[in-house]
Structures are given as C-alpha cells and as structure tokens.
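Team,

Forwarding the record for the chain on the shared tracking sheet. I've put the sequence and predicted structure together so nobody has to dig through attachments.
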Amino acid sequence: MADRIVLHVGGMKTGTSFVQSVLYWTADIHERAGLLFLAKSYPAQVSAVKRVLATPKRPERHDEWRALVQEARDFDGEAAIVSMEFMSFAKRHQVDAFMAPLEGMDVQVVLTVRDQFAAIPAQWQSYVRRFGVDPWSTYLQRIDPSRQKRDDANTHAAKGYTRAQRVDLMLERWGTHPGVGKLDVITTPDRTAPKEELWNRFAGAIGVDPSLAVDVQHRFDNSSLGYASAEVMRRLNPYLMGVPAPVYRIGLRPLVWDALTPRRQAEGKPALDRRAAEFARASNQRIRDAITAGGYEVHGSLDALPVPASLPRLARKAADPDKHAVKDAADALWDRTARELDVDASARPKKIDAVIADLGRMIPLTPRWREALAERTPPE
C-alpha cells in the first residue's frame, strides 16, 4: 500500500491545470521515484470525483472513486496522488463520502490558494466560459454580500463564486475531518515569478524532488482571455444556451484558442471597482485568518494574499471594455469561424450585434461542435 495518499483538491483558478499537466506528462518518472498519479489520467479522476459529488449518499455509485483508492492501496511506493479541483466544492457530507474508502490510509490534503485581487477577475471569466451572461460590473455586485440586491445570492454568479473561492470553508471542511492527517496550503505565485515556482511549491508540499519534472516551462497552462474577448463570449452565450457544457467547451475551444487567446496581452484585464477591491481585501484577510487559525503549513507566503492598509483610488463603477477592442475581437472570431465553414469573408456584418448573432448561428455548424454534440447525443 502507498505510504500516503495526497488529495490535491484545488482550488479553482490557482494553476491546477498546470500542476496536473506536469503530473501527467512526468507520471512515469515520478512513479519510478515512488509517486503515483492515479490512473495516470486526469479525465478518469474528473469522472470519479464528479460522481461522488453528485451522489454522496449513494456509495454503490462510487466505483470509479473506489478504483482509484484501490490503485493507491496496491501501489508499493511513497505516495499516490489525486489532483482534481472540483473536490474543493465539496460540502461536509461530500467530504465524508470521499474519505470513507480511505479509512486506514495516511491522507494528506493540499489546497492551492490565490490572491483575491487576481482571483475575482479570473473567476468572472470562468463564469463567462460556463454560459455566464452578467457583465463585469454586475458580477461584482452579485458576488459581494454587502452589495447584493434581492435574489442576487441565488444567482449563478454568486453561487459559483462562493463555491469556488470561499477558501475558509474549504479549509474547515477538509482540514477538520478526522480522517485527514495533514493539510498543506500553497500560495500561488504572482505572474512575475518563474513558471516553475508553482511546481516547486507543490513538489515541496508533497515531498518529492521538483527537478524530476523536466521541461516544466512548456506544460499546459489554462490561459485566460483578455477583457474584450471575454466580453465577446459573454454576449455570445445567449445564442449558445441549451447544449451540454462539454459540447460548448469542446466545440468552442479551437476557435477561441486561435482567434481570441493571442489577443490577451493587448486587451488587458477587467479592473476592480472601489467596493470590489474592499471585498477582495476582506476576502484575503478571511483566508489568512483561517490558515493561521488552523495551523496549516504554508508553502510560499501569506504575503501573497495582500491586505493593504489603504487601497488605490479606484472608480466607483467598473469600466466596460473598450468597444473598439470588443468589435475587433468579435470580428476575429467571426473570421476564424468563417474559414472553418468556408464562408466568404466579405459576408461579415458591419455592426457588432449582427456579428455576434451571426456567430451564434455559425458556431453550431462547425465540425468540432457537431462532433462534440454527436458524441453527447444518445442513438435513437
């Protein structure tokens, strides 16, 4: 049996895709050194985790999760690892369901956390890329309890933010479980740090030699979009509703990657308004307090979660993206989609609303979208 099982439970928007890609691409190297990335497959871990989250009180449906645990029990090495950020969503009864098959094992939980000044814009984009339709300024209102209007707390935006970014709740649910032997916190380096720094901290937390992961610089990174491109996606979402989330994600991926991702640097990010910055500061303080109170070992520094005594002078209302940049991004996505469908470029509409509407009609006709939809449609 593995001496230890490591549950890297997230959280969201903290570089988990990068860590998982390193674990996946260097699985054989790490296995020889005594670390097993269970199933050697991120999709297998996703499927197992989602099933437990969906049916926590139905252990007979947790075969995939039990199979991962059995693989860990059969492994003769130092540690087996699961890395799946959806585990950070787990409420206490769901944590119980994950932990039940691990009885008798030495369990280490690892949680990566991110500065909320950066996490809030990243979470809005994650929301947009999951059919979200609220503009940036509205999103900031909905996620902050001090600004919420009637029923805001029940919106997709507010629920998604709470589930993904309330790190204090994650620490309480996982860190106080009697089956968890140790919980380590990794603070996410800022963007000025070398890319391998996050891996170095993760390796330090789980006790492996970071140098075993070669070529870290070129591993997958779940790159964000610029503000204007994210706005295009937000405005496009009403036209694409009603399909399974995997179809939306898979069908859009090649188009967005080619047309919009390269625009990120030029477009910049959405800026927090005054009250959102106060909310981010208070959120960082809450996370720091929870880490300190729990006595968890920190890899990195709590200074990565800044709580400045004063904030810069910010606008009272968050600024919209530059309208010309939004139009340029929409045109770029239309042009890429038109090439996919062999549509004459001269047919692109002049007005942005018409471009967005045209994209809503064209994208479901692209080969990758139709393939993804066919894969999700049961035969008659």
